Amino acid sequence: MSPIYDRVALIGLGLIAGSMSHAMRRADLAGEIVGTARSPETRAIAEEIGLCDQIVATNAEAVEDADLIVLAVPVGAMGAVAAEIAPHLKPGATVTDVGSVKKAVVEAVAPHIPEGVHFIPAHPLAGTEHSGPRSGFAELFENRWCLIVPDENTDAQALDRLTCLWEAMGSNVETMDAEHHDLVLAVTSHTPHLIAYTMVGVADDLRRVTDSEVIKFSAAGFRDFTRIAASDPTMWRDVFLSNKEATLEILGRFTEELFALQRAIRTGDGDQLFDYFTRTRAIRRGIIEAGQDTDAPDFGRVAKKP
Ligand code: NAP
Fold it and tell me: Residues 70, 99: contact at Cβ < 8 Å?
């Protein structure tokens, strides 16, 4: 395939940007990939493993003459990065991001984007609990959704080009508005992460169950929670701080359901528990049928490294 963008700038060199670099290289989607990260340590690792064609020290250098700029930093850092790169953006360039929350990112980034530069937010629904420049791999986006969040003023050609890039990296693309995105993700990702963090925290607090018992006897349910609860603390702090409204809405509903199940257990209402679990089992079947996970017992996919 011929390159979709001549020069791509990756700002932040963690799991997502690293995976994009591998995926773009695999399919020859970018003429040149320039990368930068905040810390000299991350930049040095990226150099060492040859993650990009060029690693530069500053965000301003990275975006110079770039046709596509990808903001791949934690959600809370997007606004500051946008302000920093704004004066250096080439007219006609597209700025996108990969943040897990969209409304807050749009509010933080859009005001800095100069006239003549396109800003098209996006969110690949793909990830692992690993982070940093070594954690990326080309297959991460394969058969995963990428939600793109245009608005009524988005340039159709720029949107098509970004859609092509995500599709060529293996994603299925759908567009959505920012508010709806945040609600959907609160249900499918953000609240489940909070519940996993809580469950692992509860186990850790339970002094009657020693650490070694938690590890030695960890059954599938708890193991899956610990995998999710090992996700990057900075990223997830920012997700909750910036998707407050939708997460609190879903958590409220979750708490009500939990109380109902708690009462069913207390009163010995087996029928209610059985019916509830039958309904939830069907959701899992639907996810497998939609190709969004496998039926393998080890929680589906095992992350592959390049
Ligand atoms: P990551 O592996 O932790 O990498 C984050 C990168 O951002 C690093 O290069 C880091 O630089 C840089 N960074 C951190 N704080 C910064 C700050 N205050 N200012 C400037 N740069 C900063 O993260 P990731 O998993 O790739 O996530 C990147 C984005 O993708 C986030 O917005 C996240 O919400 C979104 N996302 C993540 C997943 C997932 O499952 N991980 C999935 C979809 C979308 P240093 O290494 O130099 O500190």
Answer: no
